[in-house]
Amino acid sequence: MLNQTVIEEIKTRNNIEDVISSYVRLSRAGKDLKGLCPFHSEKTPSFHVHPAEGYFHCFGCGAGGDVITFVMRAENLAYPEALEYLAKRAGINLPLDYKDGRKGEVDRSTVTAMNKEAARYFHACLMDEKTPAGLEYLQKKRGFSTALIRRFGLGYAPGGWGLCNHLKAKGYSYEQMMAANLVLKSTKRENSYYDVFRDRVMVPIFDPAGNVVAFGGRLLGDGQPKYLNSSETAAFRKSKTLFALNFAKDYCAERMILCEGYMDAMALHGAGFPSAVATLGTAITSEHARVMSRYTKSVVICYDTDEAGQKAADKAFRVLSEVGLEARILRVEGAKDPDEFIKKSGAPAFARLIDKSKSRFEFKLEKIFSKYDVATVDGKIKALDEISALIAEFPSSVERELYIAAVSKKLEVAQKALTEDVERILRKNRSRQKRAYSEEILRKTEGYADRVNPQVMGNVASARAEEAILGILLLREDVAQRALKEGLLYPELFVTDFNKRVFSRIAELTAEGQTPDTGLLGAYFTPEEMGRIVEMRLARSTLTDNGYAVLTTCVDRLKNGEKKSENSPEDIRAIIEKKRKGR
Q1: Fewest CB within a 10 Å sphere: which of 19, 54, 235, 490?
Q2: Are 446 and 469 in contact (CB under 8 A)?
Q3: 47-50 β-sheet, strand order
Q4: What are 294-320's pLDDT values in tens digits?
């Protein structure tokens, strides 16, 4: 554990506004800044940065913390790796033993170092004349050039236990290899381990900084699965990793091409389209979309032409639009995928296809018209029902007006009538959203669906008193020191385990003469838990009195277990109204 002076130096030299601005487009809101949250999808900004206090908080999803916590969440790093990341960014040299307290853990840096060694081994096997199967597949069947193979560091995993023995010789333990998902323990033979990837063409998966975080393997022989990706590790999260982003990030400022798989993405790079990326064996997620939004303004969806591919494209449209990205779809004709099209028609023809890519509205409208015979009254009515629902999905009133005008003209219906149908659907959707939001507020108020502190349910009054106490301790160091010195507070006083853990850590740090701020607490709590801790502090910071007398009142309330009715209609209306105003 680094001392507080070093942590404060790291935070001071990594201004929270500068760091977060590289991920989120922020605008000034008084003394603070706000923007769309990078950790959940939203259309109205609820993500706030408080530069003076050095922390951020999202009123929508509850994310919060300091610059260290932000980097942990944004880059999927553990606390020590986040410190290392920020120290490197600021040019600070950390002591070599700063991670000694976590010696038993296999951290991100160990996993990426192992993966790098594994990638070198796989590439050597690919180029070895004794194992020609991998190179033959890549060059003859996929048409990959030697330059492309080297650029992506492709490799081959032969059968047997080659990688296991190679990494053992390099000094890695079987436990470390298992943590990196490179080997598995045999269930048939005691103390026996075997390679996860065997008889597969190997594709290293890099993060944007160029670290090998995982692997994808394409089976050459018979069997299943044909494609096998690494399981999640300390270095790899499938839901936010994009293949080839390490190359594409330098070419995609205006437009990024999204492919279904890494073979398609590499084929496009080889054909002269370096802005191509791909998801990894999973449908696109909101996290993927938020990552893309850091690097580009527009995404061209380039999926297979089969039914599954088109269904996935429809989801991609929705997910990408939620983070503010312009999305278009490329329709490949006369071929099952981009690779086959380029081989048949050439790269210039594919470039023309990109320029002719369709918007989501055009894509969906085309599908609706292919589904119904709009020359008949019945077909026209059914088509208009679906079109009205489609137009209502677009948040921009200008977009809706333009689409209504275009459809009215095409189907020869009154623009006013179509507008009324769309408005009716919009009112229905808003009513449903309002009801769902109110129900969610009530669940949260009573402690339901609280993943950070599930014991709130059934202990609502006590938990709220605990949160008030912790908020004061985090805000007022002098009050915290006095309360602990006089024995006013002790762990057994707390009813919920999470709040008890927070108090115990605050008490320990205070006893050591350190200020229990978010920089130090981040070493002991997850980013999700840090969001709750920041909420406690924020709730008290909006109040004028956080002195010792107020703390004593909260302690008395906790000791006496005072209950109050929290489900009366008046309370419910007040809670909902308060939440709506703070939204």
Answers
A1: 490
A2: no
A3: 27-29, 32-35, 47-50, 55-58, 64-65
A4: 899 999 999 877 778 788 888 899 899
The secondary structure of 136-197 as a DSSP string is HIIIIIS---HHHHHHTT-EEE-SSSHHHHHHHHTT--HHHHHHTTSEEE-SSSTT-EEES-
Same domain, 115 and 219: yes
Alpha carbon separation from 23 to 26, 209, 251, 294 (Å, rounded)? 9, 15, 18, 6
pLDDT of residue 518 exceeding 60: yes
Question: Tell me, what DSSP letter sits at residue 55?
Answer: E
- Are the C-beta atoms of residues 316 and 302 closer than 8 Å to each other? no
Q: In angstroms, how far is the first alpha carbon of the chain from the final one?
A: 37
> How many structural domains is the chain composed of?
5
Peptide linkage before 338 cis (omega within 30 of 0): no
What is the domain extent for residue 546? 454-565
What's the full length of the chain, in residues? Answer: 583
Six-digit token string for 547:
């002195």
Whether residues 21 and 75 share a domain: the answer is yes
Residue 219 Cα distances to 151, 191, 228, angstroms = 21, 27, 8
Question: Is residue 115 a contact partner of residue 133, using CB atoms and an 8 Å limit?
Answer: no
Inside any domain, residue 240: no
Helix H segments across 91-130?
108-127
Name the token pair of 285: 């997620």
Nearest to 481 by CA among 443, 435, 516: 516
